[in-house]
């Protein structure tokens, strides 16, 4: 049997990994889970936007097309022994491509649940299929093959928000820049969109969303369609950063019915890191986006469901089962809850700063932002590891990085390997005891003023990009008195809960709270949102897995 015929160049892997050809024994194992189906030439197996099924070709050929409006272009041709699908099939989302038989063909067809069953029980096939699905997603993203087109402008904060949302959700999309693309007028005319409507998302070649919220995009692309929000879950995880994703992977793989709510995109703060170099097992480092993408797919493989662009607004904690109320008014009931909502950077409290957010002031430094400030001078604010990473990352593409921090040296707050890189990088200008005192600009940041607190001297620079990574505040405002917090708003757990905390919370049990349990029985807190957490990816992941062990105990009580 031969390789798939490809109409696009692969960027990430070999064709035999992206489109592997299965052996007769492997085909027989898949056949035992599905049904045979005969196809006529030209018969369509899947349209863009259809619910996905898994097809394994046993004779003949099928073609896979990307589709934009009336035109289709061939992506690949699969033959006997090769199978369809990519990560959307695991999450129950809709198909991004058209699949059609090109000659009399026979396939074996599996529903999503049958495929998940197979992947959880057959480790050899699980390896082959999961690797192919992940690599195919990488290729789809690289080639912009998908069901979403974003038309925007580099000068618009909402364009940046939408690009980040689609990118961090790993959703393949085409981006058309109003300022650079000549063909844009033609596209705008076809969809009756004016320049004033920008940014616009064209969803599945049909609906046009004018400056949509992230939730509207998630709804239009069907991110959460396959998820039943009403049934009582064993475990509800709030937040899909490293801690929440770890809880989802361990919970689902140990047989719990797990639902995760995520207000933005999987990965949390780690997802905004250009390169994590101290996470065990990745000696050459891994980008936060890649780590999050893998964990997200892993959680789904084990059957965890993850709702995107759904923000927990309230924990209904006065009776059991508990419930989380979301921003769309829906309530999700759960026997146990793991709070993994992490922290966000403190916003710059200066005049104009809120207005210029996304238009020169950023709170994350991924390649999306880096593209906006190529060859320009930038400022990074902060002296911790995240600021250090951002400075070294941005120094690769910017003209100069001014790194401003209030304290006297990096030694207390940053890992040694990053300090050395910063000190040895001629493109980084480190300024200790220095803080920003003013930001100015009309539609975009134009000027920055900073002050050296030792001398009191101020300097004004025509700098158009500031990256702020200083001072984390926990995402606990929505908990509204349900669990005990420390003075800074982080959630207290386990032995950190004093007798007074437990008495105030009317702790009802004879046992003490478990290690990561809050003052509310069966509700746990993990990762950066927890008081005393060490603010590392590894500790977030570790706590997510430990909490699941206690969830089992609570469910047995
Ligand atoms: C730029 C950067 C670089 C970093 N580099 C490193 C590094 O190299 N090594 C390292 O060990 N650590 C690093 N860190 C720290 C590490 O990323 C964090 O410690 C880790 O992400 C914490 O994980 P978490 O899951 O607890 O919280 P978070 O990562 O903060 O995730 C919380 C999630 O909860 C969601 N959420 C919040 N509120 C709600 C709500 N109400 N409803 C639903 N969802 C909600 C958020 O959208 C987010 O996705 C870095 C952090 C940053 C910002």
Account of the 3D structure:
The chain contains 15 helices and 29 strands. Strand 9 (148-152), helix 6 and strand 10 form a beta-alpha-beta unit. The strands form 7 sheets. Strands 13, 14, 15, 16, 17, 18 and 29 form a 7-stranded mixed β-sheet that branches. The chain has a 5-stranded antiparallel β-sheet with strand order 1-6-5-7-3, with no helix packed on it. The chain has a 5-stranded parallel β-sheet with strand order 20-27-21-22-23. The model has no long low-confidence stretch (mean pLDDT 93). It is an alpha/beta fold. The chain is 27% helix and 25% strand. The structure holds flavin-adenine dinucleotide. Residues 238-244, 261-264, 268-270, 272-273, 276, 278-279, 311-312, 340-343, 385-386, 389-390, 475, 478, 527-529, 535-538, 540 line the site of flavin-adenine dinucleotide (FAD).
């Amino acid at each position: 049997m031969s390789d798939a015929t490809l109409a696009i160049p692969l960027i990430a892997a070999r064709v035999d990994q992206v489109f592997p050809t299965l052996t007769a024994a492997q085909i027989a194992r898949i056949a035992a889970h599905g049904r045979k189906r005969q196809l006529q030439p030209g018969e369509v197996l899947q349209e863009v936007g259809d619910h996905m099924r898994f097809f394994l070709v046993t004779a003949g050929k099928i073609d896979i097309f990307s589709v934009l409006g009336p035109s289709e272009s061939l992506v690949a041709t699969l033959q006997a022994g090769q199978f369809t699908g990519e990560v959307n099939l695991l999450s129950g989302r809709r198909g991004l491509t058209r699949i059609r038989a090109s000659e009399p063909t026979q396939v074996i067809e599996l529903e999503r649940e049958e495929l998940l069953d197979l992947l959880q029980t057959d480790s050899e096939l699980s390896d082959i299929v999961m690797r192919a699905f992940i690599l195919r997603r990488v290729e789809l993203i690289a080639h912009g093959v998908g069901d979403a087109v974003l038309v925007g402008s580099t000068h618009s904060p909402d364009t940046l928000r939408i690009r980040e949302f689609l990118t961090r959700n790993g959703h393949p999309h085409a981006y058309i820049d109003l300022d650079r693309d000549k063909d844009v007028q033609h596209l705008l005319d076809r969809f009756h969109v004016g320049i004033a409507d920008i940014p616009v998302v064209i969803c599945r070649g049909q609906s046009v969303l004018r400056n949509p919220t992230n939730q509207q995009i998630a709804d239009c692309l069907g991110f959460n369609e396959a998820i039943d929000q009403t049934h009582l879950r064993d475990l509800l995880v709030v937040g899909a950063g490293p801690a929440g994703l770890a809880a989802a992977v361990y919970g689902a793989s140990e047989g719990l019915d797990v639902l995760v709510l995520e207000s933005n995109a999987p990965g949390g703060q780690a997802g905004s890191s250009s390169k994590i170099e101290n996470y065990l097992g990745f000696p050459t480092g891994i980008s936060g986006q890649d780590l999050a993408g893998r964990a997200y797919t892993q959680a789904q493989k084990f059957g965890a469901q993850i709702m995107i662009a759904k923000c927990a607004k309230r924990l209904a904690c006065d009776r059991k089962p508990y419930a989380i109320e979301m921003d769309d008014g829906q309530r999700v009931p759960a026997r146990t809850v793991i709070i993994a909502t992490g922290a966000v950077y403190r916003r710059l409290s200066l005049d104009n700063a809120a207005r210029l957010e996304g238009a020169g002031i950023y709170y994350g430094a991924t390649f999306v932002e880096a593209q906006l400030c190529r060859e320009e001078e930038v400022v990074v604010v902060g002296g911790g590891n995240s600021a250090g990473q951002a400075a070294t990352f941005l120094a690769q593409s910017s003209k100069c990085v001014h790194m401003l921090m209030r304290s006297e040296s990096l030694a207390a707050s940053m890992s040694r390997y990053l300090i050395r890189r910063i000190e040895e990088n001629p493109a980084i200008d480190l300024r200790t005891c220095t803080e920003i005192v003013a930001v100015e600009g009309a539609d975009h940041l134009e000027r920055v003023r900073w002050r050296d607190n030792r001398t009191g001297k101020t300097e004004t620079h025509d700098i158009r990009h500031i990256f702020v990574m200083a001072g984390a505040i926990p995402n606990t405002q929505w908990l509204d008195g349900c669990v005990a917090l420390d003075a800074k708003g982080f959630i207290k757990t386990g032995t950190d809960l004093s007798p007074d905390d437990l008495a105030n919370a009317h702790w009802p049990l004879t046992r003490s709270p478990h290690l990561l349990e809050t003052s509310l029985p069966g509700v746990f807190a993990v990762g950066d949102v927890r008081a005393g957490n060490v603010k590392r990816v590894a500790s977030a992941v570790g706590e997510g897995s430990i909490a699941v062990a206690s969830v089992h105990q609570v469910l047995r009580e």
